[in-house]
Amino acid sequence: VKVTLYPGVTRRDLFHWAVCVPASCSVDDIQHSLSSTLKSVFKRHGLEAAVTVDPQYCHIADNKEIPPTIGYISVRVVILLLLVVSGIATVYDYVMPYYRDQKFESALAEVSEKMLLAFSVRRNIHELTEKGVNPKLDVINGGKVISIAAILFGHRILYSHGLALYNHQFWEERLDSHFVDNALLNATHLVDVFFVCSGTLAYLGVHKALDKR
Q: What highest taxon heads this organism's lineage (predicted)?
């Protein structure tokens, strides 16, 4: 098995196993036992094996759960902050018309309000469902949304199928012989549709702005 250190390629020379042993066994006992057993098996096939037991994943029924990592906590904090900001922006969007009749005292206050309202659920839903100025362009916007949704789902499926447990040769043959899988997983035509729609809409917007000058 060829070893690659490129982070974009899933290593297929690693095996993750879970074993159930008595609670009296230490981490060193498990590693020594597995190493002596597996090395002899791999050696018969001309392979070398290195066994590593992570103490973090060794626990018994009475132990607490594995402590969360810094990355896990960071992601949870970011998601929580986004939810809080979104909630504040949505509430502010509802009550703003009733409590503010005067204009802004400074340009900074106006920009700050626009940035806050960008997280408003009410305003975003309204803008997503509102018809455009030119109804003829709605079909292009729809094509852009459908294509980017298919691209995102296809990439998510590709990530799952790239795991070491999947036979990559099987998926390559399936992509070559099944149209539906090719349309969702390969999806080069969907990427082209998305870029064409986005480029067309960007051009029309810039062209309209230049005509007003």
A: Eukaryota
Rg of the Cα atoms in the chain: 28
Closest Cα partner for 146 from 204, 198, 206, 186? Answer: 198
Neighbours of 194 (CB within 10 A): 20
Side chain identity at residue 175, one-letter code: L
State the CB neighbour count (10 A cutoff) for residue 89: 21
Give me the residue label for tokens 């992509």: 175
Residue located via tokens 């035509």: 189
The predicted pLDDT at position 155 comes to: 73
Written as six digits, the tokens of 27 are 């981490």
CB atoms within 10 A of CB 121: 13
CB contact set of 69 (below 8 Å; sequence gap of 6+):
none
Phi and psi angles of residue 177, each rounded to the nearest 5 degrees, phi first: -115, -10
- Whole-prediction pTM value? 0.49
Q: How far apart are CA 59 and CA 41, in angstroms?
A: 27
Residues 127-131 have a mean pLDDT of 75
Contact 204, 137 (CB under 8 A): yes
Distance, CA of 126 to chain centre: 26
Give the DSSP letter of residue 184: I
Q: Please, are residues 156 and 163 in contact by the beta-carbon 8 Å criterion?
A: no
Q: What is the pLDDT of residues 66-79, one digit of tens each?
A: 678 898 899 999 99
